[in-house]
Structure formats: structure tokens, C-alpha cells
Specification:
Chain lengths: 284, 215
Amino acid sequence: LTPMRIISRLDIKGPNLVKGVHLEGLRALGDPTEFAKSYFSQGADELLYVDSVASLYGRNLAKDLVKDLSSEIFIPMSVGGGLRNLNDLQAVLAMGADKVVVNTAAIERPKFISEIVDEFGASTLIVAVNGISGRGSKYEVMVEGGRQPTGIDVREWTKIIQDLGAGEIAVTSIDREGTGKGFDRKLIEAVLENAEVPILVGGGCGSPQDVLEAAHLGVDGVVIASLLHYSKLEKEKGNVIRDEGEGNFEFLRSGRETTKFQISSINEIKDHLEQNGISCRKGQ
Amino acid sequence: VLDVGIVNYGMGNLRSIETALDHVGFSHFQISKAREFSMVRRLILPGVGGFPKAIERLKRQSLAKPIIDWAHSGKVLVGICLGMQLLFESSDEINQTPGLALMKGKVSRLCCESPSVFGNRIPNMGWRQVKACSSGVEDFTQHPLIPTSQSGNWMYFAHSYGVSDSPDGVQIATLQHCSRTYAAIVKRDNVVGFQGHPELSGYSGLRALKSALEI
């Protein structure tokens, strides 16, 4: 059986790793390079960077950040957030990204997907789909960081993405994002119905058991952010906050514990998968 | 003279390969012209994207013939992903296109009767275990080109095409996709090919890449 991938998602804003709920209310959590290195050594299969305010491009600080990250980490790295044209993609790939993630620009002009595939190859492109539950069993596609509704049905859109040749589809549940309440099963099932390309799912992961359940549904990978971030912070409690610069550090200063997540490292998640018959890569 | 030249023909990200080479201690240089071949000891042919376009770009930059000559001269050549596929005779991607023909075999679309079944999806993306070849006289179980960690021979793959007919003796390890077997790691004398990405396959991948360069 195909091994399950654990993809660690890092949302970046300026110099900080940030995390919100439903993609909003961002808290600063610390230095992203430190988190990324930790996830690499814990056995992450891939890293996914999302520039939450698309500030990545043209800013030397962020360029250096991606460069720093790629020099110590020998697993695939995908970068997304505000990528609008082939030049943006070229710049991100030259900085050290192995794959690019597009969302809003693809919705605005679906042909962009086939242009990317022609230029960089299918396996270089992940199309991100943010879905929110609507009437009945329908899910609606949201853009602009999950804030803007489109009226487009998730099931139909993922079919189009696939037909246009994208290599992978990463679906995030806005309803569950940052909540730790588990993946949105119905959303995943809707996307998997006609899937002929790898499907990655995110939004809501709160425990190793959630990952196992997603694996049983037949996804190729899970995208996890909060669970891994808060687990890392919890396990390293007492460490000083390094960056007191820009960003909302209230959460870190408060020392408040998070109760929505079952504290687990990537290794522990993979142990749980293996014990339940799901194959995954372990060790370096 | 530098340790490794990375062929830059506009097909894919070279930076991950450069950082991998930095880590294993090889000096490197991006090569885009044939006359620069004399500046390096070994060549890496990377590549992500389509086969016909890759061959066209190699020819446009007058690199195809010099790469073939390089391999025939006995110097180390390592192909990665599409770069590995280019080493073979031809590909049926879009149109039938001749390759560099340094290895016997043809590149064809990964085949699947039931593509929507989990595990059969294309592109074949993610971490897979490769299987060492051991046929008759030759046993490659302990071969240094195979990335090995405590939990198996894991490698990261990202491809929609593969080589299913490369001859015994050349195949060091294979990969399963949808009940078919494809070449994962190949070697013919001084020419090595990885269908997966050793530079993105953790520390065991880096060891395999180093072994390929020191073959």
C-alpha cells in the first residue's frame, strides 16, 4: 500500500511562524527555521510554507529565510501564498522551493494551472483548495486566505484542477482549521470521489488518531500545523521567546497551555500509523 | 577544477542539489555551455518537467552530444528524475522522442487500470521503498547507491513516467507502482540514474548521492 505522508505546514508572516484559527487571528509562535529543523529531524516527509500575507516576494529577509531553511533540510519543500504569475513561481523555485502552491490565481484564471504544468511539470504544482461547508453536503471554495467566497463547488473545482493537469491537490477545511477537532470527513470524501491525482488534506488535525482516520479514507498525505507547533512548544516549555519584534506574542507570553491538541511529535504520529497497519517512512 | 558540474538547461530547481552537495562536501558549479565541461570532474544531469522539452533544450544549448561524449569517456554522470529518464533510448511522453541512449530501455507513462484507487494515483508522489535487485549472479542488496535507513530503503519520488524494461545488471533497485515494476536506481559503468530524488530523501539519500558521485 502507498505510504502515508506527513506534511508539516508553516505559516509565515514577516520574520515569524504564525498560526490562527479558521486561518484568522494569527499568533506569532517563534522562529520558523527552528520549527522547520525540528520537524525535519522528527521525520516530516515534506514541509509546506505559506506566506500568510504574501510578503515573501521581493523581501530580502524572507528570501534569506527560505534559503536558510533549504540549506539544512533535505526533504521536499513547497512554497505558496500570493503567487500570481510564472515569474513569481520562477523566483520561488530559484530560492530553493521544490514545489509551488497556488490558489487564488488559479480560481481567477484556471488556465494558469496548465501553463504552470507546461512550464514546470505536473509534479511541481500543488493547487490548494480552501473549502467551507455550505448548504446540504456542498462545500464552497474560498480564496484570499479563506476570507473570500467564490460560489464554486469544491467537488467541481477539484475535478477541473485535475483535468488541467495539476500534480497534487491540497484541501483545507476552513471550518476545522486550527481547531484540533479532527479532519472534515465529508469534505475529504467529496474530494476523493473522483481523485486520480494525489490528495493532501489539512485543517483540524488534533491527534495521531485523526491522521489514522484520514489514512483509512484513502488520502495520500495530511497537512498538519497547529498540532505540531503546540506540541513542540509544549515539549520545550520554558524556552525564551527569541523574537520580540513585530507580531502578536500574547499567546507565548501568557504561557497558556493548549488543550485542543493531543501533544505528539511526528514520530509518535507515525508510530500510531504503523501500529495500525499504515506504512510510512521513518528515520533518516 | 571543481568536483561537480550541474547541468543547467532550464529544467527544474538546482538549488536543492547544490545544498545537498554542500552538505556532502563537494564543490559545484552550474554548467550551461559545453566548453565549461572541462571545469568539473563529474556531471549531474537534473530535470523536472517534460521529456521532449528537455531534449530540445539540451540540443539548443548544444549540450546533448557533449554529455554523451562525457559518459563515453568514462567520467561520472549522474541523472536525477527526468535527468535519469533522458539517459535512456526514448520516451513516449507527448511524442516519441529519442533520448541520450546511454542505457537500454524506453520511458513510458506509468500505467494504471484503476487510477482512482488509493495508491495508483498519478503522478506517483511521495516516499516509496525501493527494492534491491538480486537476480542470479548479482545481488545488490547492500549496494551503496540504495538509500538505507533503519526503517527501510526510502526515497522521495515525483514522476508520471518510468522505465519498465531496463535490462538486468543495470537495475540496482526497482519501484512498484500499481502492480508494475519500474527502474528506481540504475547504473551502467560510470553512469548512474535515480528516478527518485536522493537530494530530497533525507540523510540516507545524501549518502546515496555521494556514493553515486564516487562510483
